[in-house]
Design a protein that fits this description.
The complex is a heterodimer of chains A (298) and B (228). The longest helix of chain A has 43 residues. Chain A has a four-stranded antiparallel β-sheet with strand order 2-3-1-4. In chain A, helix 2 packs across helix 8, helix 2 crosses helix 10 and helix 6 packs parallel to helix 10. Chain A has 298 residues and is an alpha+beta fold. The two termini of chain A are 19 Å apart. Chain A folds into two domains: 191 residues, no CATH class; 80 residues, 2-Layer Sandwich (Alpha-Beta Plaits), CATH 3.30.70. Chain B has a six-stranded mixed β-sheet with strand order 6-7-8-3-9-10, with helices on both faces. In chain B, strands 2-1-4-5 form a four-stranded antiparallel β-sheet, with helices on one face. Chain B has one domain: 3-Layer(aba) Sandwich (Rossmann fold). Chain B is globular. Chain B contains seven helices and ten strands. By secondary structure, chain B is an alpha/beta fold. The chains are: A alpha+beta (298), B alpha/beta (228).
Amino acid sequence: MKIRTISYMFKQGFIGIWRNRGMSVASISSVAASLAVLGVIITLVLNINNLSNVAQMQFDSIQVYLEDELTVEETMDLGQQIGSIEGIHYIEYESKEDALAKMKEQWGDQGHLLETLEENPLPHSYIIHLSNIDAADDVVAGLNSIEGIEEVKYYKDLIDNMLSIATFIRTIGLVLIVILVLIAMFIISNTIKLTLNARKQEINIMKYVGATNWFIRWPFLIEGIVLGLIGAVIASIIVFYGYEYSYNIISTRFYVMLSSYMVSVEQMASRVIAMFVVLGTGVGALGSIISLRKHLKV
Amino acid sequence: MIQFKNVNKVYNKGIQALTNINLTIKKGEFVFLVGPSGAGKSTFIKLLLKEAEPTEGQIIIEGQDITKLSRRKIPNLRRNLSVVFQDFRLLPNKTVYENIAFAMEVIEASPKEIRRQVPMILGMVGLSDKAKQYPHELSGGERQRVSIARSIVNNPSILIADEPTGNLDPETAWEIMKVLKQINRRGTTILMATHAKDIVDIMQQRVIAIEKGRVVRDEHKGAYGYED
């Protein structure tokens, strides 16, 4: 294709956008709105996934509190029994003294409060590292059949809950997105239809003098793609600044620790912007193809 | 050049538009297509332009069976076979020059070619001094001449004129016929569907008459043959 032809097509595309400004604004807004909603959903899902990954790394262990009055032999024997359960990577012993020291460390500045305790209330325990988080239920069942264990603590439920929330948001989000994208496509195809009507006569002449089909179609495709792209850019700006703003609020006003579980703004932007550009272009192109198929018999 | 072989056209609703058409139009001929309204003239032209497909038969243009031509090749066909309509179909927001140049632009002719070709064609149809005017500033005859100029600017070998004088008074109609005859003399084959009895009778060209979808008459130096 010649450069002159390409510039002709872009010019016609932009003339189309300008000629139906009202509808163009509606198209751009609907693309931007759909993508912005998509952005919010992606933000939520990515962060929940991230959070549950971090949580899985930290909590892929089961802590078993032992009864207080066990002898050293009994404790050793118990360790052997636990170690023989399938799905366990390795086990660690944590005495009540170790546990207290660890807690002091975790409490940091407030650690001295623990020194006022008259006796150590913490139990001896085994920390079981699983070879696989999915084995957790079986391991817990095995642990419950062993004598001498006071309590089994593990966080699989928490992780499961987070993952199911993520799945839920993703499903609802997908349905919402599909509906919004369809609306955006519908509005774009109507915008293109207006341009088609305005250029009916020109197209008719073009057909009779032998313009190729693609020569006739490209300006409309460009119009749709440009509408979609502008929508994508606006959505990217909204999501980028929106996320940066909430990220900053969470890390300054709430809890610094929480933001360390969040996906960083840069990471978010790099994923979302590329996706928006592709989606916006796609929605725009599809919107115009729909109306070209319906209203332009070349 | 143009050959119809056993062409039948039945529309979806079962209307038999053309029945067993067999004819040959040679290169450089000037042919009138006459017949009452609804006799099948429009269908005939539509088949040539590949706007409609024959139900049966072959249509051969310059050695190529266009019924077998893929949709993607239609633009090539139409560059060689251009058409002039009764209603001119000019773009109102473009000048005479731009209207004609448009036909070259959309087939991606170079600006140099356009600058050379458009003034020449304008001269041929006698509108050199109207190049910068808009269609609404022109008379009907002038508009039709612009439309003809546009249809021949890409040098088609066949020009189809669908009642080109239908909207014009007799005197103006003759101007148009002079232009068409001149184009014909350059070697362009012309097929003109018309109801203009006087023109057909005086021009003394080949006349093909279609009635109820059949060719009922095909004479050289023929007459219109109907009392309208």
